[in-house]
Known about the structure:
Layout: H1 3-32, H2 36-61, H3 65-92, H4 95-107, H5 111-123
Helix pairs in contact: 1-2, 2-3
Amino acid sequence: MNLPDQIEALATGFALVALSAALLITVWRIIRGPTLPDRVLGLDMLVAIAIGLIAVVAIRTGFNLYIDIAIALGLVGFLATVAFARFILARGLSPEKASADDGATQAKRAPAARASTAHRKRKGGRR
């Protein structure tokens, strides 16, 4: 075994250990995450780590089909992240929260704007 092969074996071994540790830490964060966006971000990170692991295995084994698998996983991971983000966004705009936010917004208005709204309500019309 020549020197470049030894360096490659050492580098891929270190990369596998580091990515495995990152995988475990990310899984712990997903389980422990206090909010749903934290968990979604953890799942996105999990996909990125899995892509790294697949790439390192492809380098180590020399089987190039793994690179295609990593690309496909990247595309699916991106779509899953977008879907989760839309879910969180839709969840944040529930009717209960929207009415509560509207009340908070009205409370923050300037006194003149509130007086103008009250004047319109007395006249029975809207602008």
